[in-house]
Design brief:
Elements: H1 2-26, E1 32-34, E2 39-43, E3 51-53, E4 58-61, E5 78-80, E6 105-106
Antiparallel strand pairs: 1-4, 2-3, 2-6, 4-5
C-alpha cells in the first residue's frame, strides 16, 4: 500500500510540474508599462471612435506566448491597470449579462 501511494505521489508531482511549466511558458508576462501615444478605441469592425486612451496610461502586457499564441490575431494586447481606494467594480454580476463575445474593441480605427 505504501508503495502505491509513493508511486501515485510521484506521478502527481510530475503532472503538477508539467502543468506549472506549461503555464510559465504560455501565460502572458503581465509586465507593466506606459502607453507611448494616444490610442483611439472603437468597435472592432466599425469606423467610429468611442473614446481615447491618453499617452502615459499604465497598462499590463496580456499577449499570450508559446503554444497559446497560435491563432492569436492581435499580437499587442494589454489591459489597463486601475487602482483606487473606492469599490469600483461589481464582481457579483451574472456572467451571462456580461456578453463576453459580443463586444470586441480595437485600437485600429479607420477614418
Amino acid at each position: 500500500m505504501k508503495k502505491a501511494i509513493f508511486i501515485l505521489s510521484i506521478l502527481l508531482n510530475i503532472v503538477f510540474g508539467f502543468n506549472y511549466l506549461s503555464d510559465a511558458i504560455n501565460e502572458p508576462t503581465r509586465e507593466l508599462g506606459r502607453l507611448k501615444k494616444d490610442i483611439e478605441i472603437g468597435y472592432f469592425s466599425g469606423d467610429s471612435v468611442l473614446f481615447k486612451l491618453p499617452k502615459g496610461l499604465t497598462v499590463a502586457d496580456e499577449s499570450k506566448r508559446g503554444i497559446s499564441a497560435i491563432g492569436q490575431f492581435e499580437n499587442n494586447r494589454f489591459s489597463i491597470v486601475i487602482t483606487s481606494n473606492d469599490d469600483l467594480v461589481d464582481y457579483e454580476i451574472n456572467n451571462d449579462s456580461l456578453n463576453t463575445f459580443s463586444n470586441f474593441y480595437s485600437a485600429d480605427v479607420n477614418k
